[in-house]
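Just curious. Invent one:
>
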Amino acid sequence: MEIREFRKGDFKAYVDLLLLTSGNEYAGMGKRQISRMLELMDWDWIWVAVEGKAPVGFITVRPEGGTVHIIWLDVHPDFERRGIGSALLEKVIQVGKSYGLGPMVCEVWAENAKAISFYDKHGFRRYRWLENYYKNGLDAWQVVKDI
């Protein structure tokens, strides 16, 4: 597996993966809406996990006020539990440290037990409850990790 910076040719694979993995958080959003959200992202802060030649995971982060804000961390379901999410997270930690950024922050749908367990395992703590965080009214946890 290789972790590399996002390339414009990865765009379709990223949209498809977000639609596959986003579940309830972005329920009701179609390919066009997901594509428009991604077009607004800063491409310098997206890394891709590649297995063979295929993108199998992505992490999108945004530096905000001295923090590293994780926007999305997604791994294709066929490639889960192989360390891909951990490798993407480690890449972001390295980059965040190199820029002198502080804690990592992420919002996680409150019912996404798999994601909450992942962040717990990697030393994140539940920081704040966010009621009606998602546009469809779902709640989230904001989780934080010092780096």
Observations:
- The radius of gyration is 14 Å.
- Residues 2-103 form a domain with the Aminopeptidase fold (CATH 3.40.630.30).
